[in-house]
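Response to reviewer comment R2.3. The reviewers asked that we include at least one raw input/output pair. We reproduce the pair for Transcription regulator TrmB N-terminal domain-containing protein here without editing.
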Amino acid sequence: MEQLGDELSRLGWGKYESACYHSLVKFGEMKASQVAARIDAQPAKVYQPLNSLHERGYVKVRSENPKRYVAQNPRYVIEKEQERFEAESDEILESLEEAWEVQIERGPDADDSAWVLSGQDGMNTELLNLIEDAEKSIIGFDTRLAWATRDVIEAIEEALENDVDVNIIGTPHSSDTLDRLDESGATTNISDNHNRSSYYIVDEKAVLLNIGTQEATLSFEDSDIAGIILDDYQTHEREQIEAQT
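Raw output as returned:
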């Protein structure tokens, strides 16, 4: 409860709005002067925040002389704030997407042919985008497959349903995920080498490459480099098959 004011401030509420509502939730119905006393503020500081909360439906007013304020149910307040946040987020997203589409149509500069992604989350996000764009094939050697998100795994399964050829090598700790993908129609294999680079090749041109255990991942399109990495995959795949026979 003591952190409620801070949490409301993170939603964009003003300092005194947060403090006034928190006080009414905690102590119940009060006059403005009592609210001010509870939050250790001058009475003049609380009138505008209380009126703002009343106009938004977050505080109810009982009687007029003097007004007595009552907090609206917090569940109602949070649901309304969520609706507001989602509406504002949709507007922001629409503006950002329009700007993004404009720069995509202009085409990348020569220096922008490769992108550096940070951490596992960055790799998963870019991998999801590549998988969703795949038309023919997805080749992967992934020592971190056990940490792939559910969205990534489901996207691979959807690609399989769309007749995309999927071949993935993982490590023993990702055997459950490999079994699931195998049942969905992917060709899978297991390697004990945890120190190799992880990579994905999509449609023999798009490459996602993580060097060893480093946090940075490269994303780029280059058919020649994709071909070299694909040769490495096929060589390692043959070695694994031979080792098992």
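The beta strands are 30-31, 59-62, 68-71, 114-118, 137-141, 165-170, 187-190, 198-202, 206-210, 216-221. The radius of gyration is 28 Å. Further pairs are available on request from the corresponding author.
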